[in-house]
Design a protein that fits this description.
This protein is mainly beta. It has 6 helices and 46 strands. The chain is elongated, with a radius of gyration of 37 Å. The two termini are 73 Å apart.
Length: 550
């Protein structure tokens, strides 16, 4: 088969393409298919067909059908002189070779396909690397059936003695398995294995990523390691790391990596900043793994719900899950089988009277207290507020008889000119102001016409004091043993306006990651570990553990 060359300058002018003759075109006329070199003429279905040229991009053929010339794209069909003419395929030649092998030839460890002429030269076919058993491979190649030394234009297969190529370590998905395989590379956040030769290459072994702890007893393998210094927490260690299973070469680092070993910088593993569990670093503290102290007693969870809106951001859903984990870590039991989380439309106003409901609204919290809650609710409320403070969630309280629906507490975001509602932090500060002047029992919380929470500090009706109301609401020097902010006394650890109340009763800026710290509430992530703020990625929160608990 000789590939010719013609000058088709007019086609250059029409298409803007340079014409090349180093290709063949597979043409179908009616039910007849044939391969054409440029310049070749054949009679098909009673009509003369000539391939005049092929575009340089190999995406169209210039064909003469009888006396009519047409340009037909690959996979396109045109009706010419009453005949259906289709360009099925265009195969570009390179160095006088039409066939192409995607894995470059006899690469037994890589899946490939060979695309070229069929053995009769009439069609274009594709052969594929296949495993003919779990040990033998049949390799797709470009070949020349009649002349081994001629142009390898044909797609065929290589299978010595008809048995295939022996794969010493097995065959899978059209390729021999290498001497060593590593499931995850050096990825400390994925638990994987490496399977290869042992150190003296006498047998195959499998190494597995493993957690190691560094403490007063030195380095030792563990299933769980938490970087902390609390003696009452299971798995606490001064430092946590992963020994990464890898493919290596013990004697020659530049040689073939056919042995299974470990990557462990300085013999101390790859450091995990937060914790290590089951052979991988995790980016958040495994709350459910924290063992209670010997003094802790388990408590029955009173009627309690966490509610999020139907269109709530994913961060609210994640926050609800983590608050549930925190509640469990404080020793509360008796979670209902269906869990404690609900959507707004699953909680009606009539269901609020005997419950404590935490409504989450775009990162803020609203505590809805039922009119008939029990003493157990009030004790639980203390633990719940400590959790919210620890997580940096601003919140305020409202009685259930002021709420007609939970959507009322968290209206949909709007782009109108209506003034934004006060944040949970602003509402809580106003409530605190009322407490600071001794008016806590007379504090009135309502919902205005815009769905915003309003706080009114009211003087008891029976008071006979002649002191003006303004003087009661704005004392000149309120007594505050914590942080005084805008006339409100904020407890230590309270976070407001990107600041926190420190133990020295001063408001300070919340700290970024890697900054020195002493307490969780100082950090933007609420995680202070080994005296440094560390990142707490929202999407890596342990939702699966939440489902296991509830």
């Amino acid at each position: 088969m000789i590939i010719g060359s013609v000058n088709a300058g007019w086609l250059d002018w029409i298409t803007g393409s340079t014409i090349t003759s180093e290709a063949v075109c597979q043409i179908k006329v009616g039910d007849i298919t044939a391969i054409f070199d440029v310049g070749e003429t054949k009679t098909m279905d009673g009509i003369s067909i000539t391939l005049l040229d092929i575009t340089e991009d190999a995406d169209a053929c210039q064909i003469k059908v009888g006396d009519i010339i047409a340009i037909i794209d690959e996979d396109e069909t045109q009706i010419i002189d009453g005949k259906e003419v289709t360009v099925l395929d265009i195969v570009v030649t390179t160095q006088s070779t039409i066939c192409k092998d995607s894995d470059g030839g006899k690469d037994y460890y890589k899946y490939g396909e060979a695309k070229g002429l069929s053995d009769d030269g009439l069609t274009v076919v594709t052969t594929k690397d296949i495993c003919i058993s779990d040990k033998y491979l049949e390799e797709a190649i470009c070949t020349n059936f009649a002349d081994p030394d001629g142009p390898k234009n044909y797609a065929g297969t290589y299978s010595p003695d008809g048995k295939g190529i022996l794969c010493e370590f097995g065959c899978k998905k059209g390729a021999c398995l290498p001497a060593c395989t590593d499931a995850d590379g050096v990825d400390k956040f994925v638990s994987g294995t490496a399977t290869g030769w042992n150190s003296d290459r006498t047998q195959k072994v499998t190494a597995k990523d493993q957690c190691i702890a560094e403490d007063k007893n030195g380095l030792h393998q563990v299933s769980l390691c938490i970087a902390c210094s609390e003696s009452n927490v299971e798995g606490c260690a001064d430092r946590c790391a992963v020994d990464e299973a890898i493919c290596t070469n013990f004697a020659d680092p530049e040689g073939v990596k056919d042995q299974a070993g470990f990557y462990s910088p300085n013999g101390a593993g790859v450091t995990c900043e937060i914790a290590c569990k089951d052979g991988k670093c995790i980016t958040n503290l495994p709350t459910t793994e924290i063992a209670p102290t010997t003094e802790q007693t388990f408590k029955q969870l009173p009627h309690f719900l966490i509610a999020v809106g139907e269109a709530a951001p994913s961060s609210d859903v994640t926050l609800a899950a983590n608050i549930g984990l925190d509640i469990a870590a404080k020793g509360y039991t008796g979670f209902p089988a269906e869990g404690i989380s609900r959507l707004f439309n699953e909680v009606t106003a009539s269901q609020l009277s005997d419950k404590l409901v935490l409504v989450l609204c775009r990162g803020d919290g609203i505590l809805v207290k039922g009119s008939s809650i029990t003493q157990e609710h009030k004790l639980f409320d203390v633990d719940l507020m400590s959790i919210l403070n620890w997580r940096g969630v601003g919140y305020y309280t409202i009685m259930s008889d002021k709420v007609s629906s939970l959507n009322q507490l968290c209206p949909a975001e709007t782009t109108s000119n209506v003034a934004a509602c006060p944040s949970a932090e602003e509402t809580a500060i106003q409530q605190q102001k009322c407490k600071d002047v001794g008016l806590e029992k007379e504090t009135q919380v309502d919902v205005d016409v815009n769905g915003c929470i309003t706080v009114t500090c009211k003087v008891a009706e029976e008071t006979t004091s002649n002191v003006p109301l303004a003087q009661k609401l704005e004392p000149t020097a309120p007594i505050c043993n914590a942080c005084l902010v805008n006339g409100a006394c904020l407890p230590v650890s309270t976070r407001a306006n990107k600041q926190y109340c420190d133990i020295d009763n001063k408001m300070k800026d919340i700290k970024d990651d890697s900054t020195e710290c002493n307490n969780n509430f100082e950090c933007s992530s609420n995680l202070c570990i080994n005296d440094a703020c560390v990142s707490g990625s929202i999407w890596n929160k342990i939702l699966s553990w939440f489902s296991k608990i509830f």
